[in-house]
Every structure is written in C-alpha cells, then in structure tokens.
Amino acid sequence: MLFYLLFQQIYPRTGLSVLNVTRYITFRTAAASLSALAISLTLGPWMITKLREFQIGQVIRQEGPQSHRPKAGTPTMGGLLILTAALVPTVLWADLTNVYVWIAVLTTAGFGVIGFADDYLKIVGRSHHGLSPRGKIAYQVLISAVVGVLLLILAHQGLYNTRLVFPFFKRLVPDLGWWYLVFAIFVLTAESNAVNLTDGLDGLAISIFAIAAAAYTALAYVTGHRVFAEYLLLVRFPLAAELTVFCGALVGSSLGFLWYNSYPAEIFMGDVGSLALGAALGTVAILIKQELLLVIVGGVFVLEALSVVIQVTYFRLTGGQRVFRMAPLHHHFELMGWSEPKVITRFVILAIIFALFSLATLKLR
Description:
Blueprint: H1 2-14, H2 25-53, H3 79-93, H4 99-125, H5 133-156, H6 180-198, H7 204-224, H8 226-231, H9 243-261, H10 270-287, H11 294-297, H12 299-318, H13 329-335, H14 340-360
Helix pairs in contact: 2-3, 2-9, 3-4, 3-9, 3-10, 4-5, 4-10, 5-6, 6-10, 6-12, 7-9, 7-10, 7-14
C-alpha cells in the first residue's frame, strides 16, 4: 500500500529522489521489519491488559510438568499480536500485485483462524482440549490443498514449477507434477504442527521461529536476485523476491512478541500464533523452492516433532514404555533437571547452528 502510494503515485508526480529508495526490496524489508517491531512493542501492553480483562488465560495440561502449574491463567492468544504486527507491515510495504505475497499472507491468516478456533474452545471449556485432533488436521489439510492447487495453476501459467531442489544435490531436480499437491499439503501441515509442538516454554518457539524466519529472509532475497541465484545454483523466481518483505515483517513481529514472551512470560502465543507461524514458514519455503532445506533451517522444530512421533509409536508398540521422560523434547530435558531458561537458551543456540548450516549448504553441490 505504501509502496504503491510512495513509489507509483507520489514519486512520478513530484520527482522526489528520496522516494526512489522505496523501489528497493532491501529498504522495504527493513521498513516492514521495523514497522512490525514497533507495532508489537506498542500494542503488547494493551493486548496483555485486554486479555486479562476478558480472562483469556492459559490452561495447563494436567499431565504436563508440575513446574508449569504457576503459569495457569497467563494471558494467551498472543498470536493475534504477532499476526497483526506481521501482516499489516506486509500489506503496507510489499508489492500487492505480487501473487506470492497474497498466497503467503492468506495462508498464514487461514491457519491463524484454525488456531483461533482451537484456542477459543479451550478457553470456553476451561480445558486444554480445543478442536478435535482430526478436525484440526482436516482444516489444515483443506487450506494446504487450496495452496497446492493454486501452485499447480501458477505452474501451468509458467509462474512456478513443481520441481524439488535437493540441498546437497542441486543437479537432482525431479518434477513431482500433480504429486506436488500432496507434497505441499504435507509440508504445510507438518511445519505448522511442528511449531505448535515446540510452543511449550516461555519464548522458546518464537525465538527459534525468528531465527528460521531470518534465514528465509536471506533465502527469499537471493532466490529473486539474478546474480545470486545463478551463482548459488538456485531456482530463480523474480516474483519470490517480494517475499523478503513478508519474512522481514515476520522477524520484526517475532522479536517484538519475544519482548513480552521471554521468561517469565507475560503472554503466550497460543495455537493462533504457533499454527500460523508454522504455516508462514512452510509457505515461504514452498514458494521460493527451498522446501527440503526447511528440515535443516527448522531443525529444532523437526526434532521436537520427531520426539513426539517416536514417543507415541514406541509407547503403543511396547504397551506403555517410553523413550523420553516426556515429549515434546524440551519437556524431557526439563525433567532431567535442566531449568527452563537453560533449555530455552540451549535450544536457541542449536537453532542458530541449524540456520547457519542451512545457509552454508547453498553453494554445496
């Protein structure tokens, strides 16, 4: 919106050279990030107060760690703050004629609606049970399927392709064709739920997400840059460069939310935040053709999700035995005696290592 107003309307009429800077993605990404940060920091106290007034507090699972009981009643659904701070600057600073931007924005909002419904049912029922697991997955699959169909349509128009790029074997680019629809559904639902499972400690999920989003900010930029994409042997999509603005807004909103979500948390993001953020990351990965690199960039999310899969599978196969003391993985380390801040700090360090390693693979063949 501001991009259209400043660069396409005011600049041609006035000739003010200072407005020419708005054409550059780097400037608009920085502007979106700072705008998102400002919105988060400004609206944070107001939202925390309102959530308390409406008694929208966190419901703690009975089977969870005993140390989490004092967190009961902490304002939740803070994901509304994250989404507002991320999507508003995107609309303000991104080129709204870009279809990739709208796919990312609407997919993120769609998963946010699912999370909102889940949180709302938990609060009304005063229970940690919201939407049924099958119902939640069904809605996620539905939105993901719509995204997959849109991508197939874009591929038919020559604006996208259904090939996969392998991080360590860049010459290996198989075309999935119609099977890409199934693949897109898996990526979006898996990443969305992986972030949701990681959201169990103060500031943990949002910190790791901010690191992953920062990595994808760089990836989105180089994917749309002719010289960088050619040098790094990436699939170049000029339209994908505009997603850099979206990713920058995600980073800014995450940092702003972390200000209030850091230990001890004043507000939790809830499913409205975790499901939406996971979908945002998965959507960007798909659109810039770095889907498989998501396993490395979001390595901590993958480990958290795998710990749950392993725990549940082993429990059922052995009739009640466990691999971990508790899943997801962060609870296992809590029960080993690590303090919550120590678990968070070490997982964040691990997330940084994963992100740096993912960027280091760009030139590997």
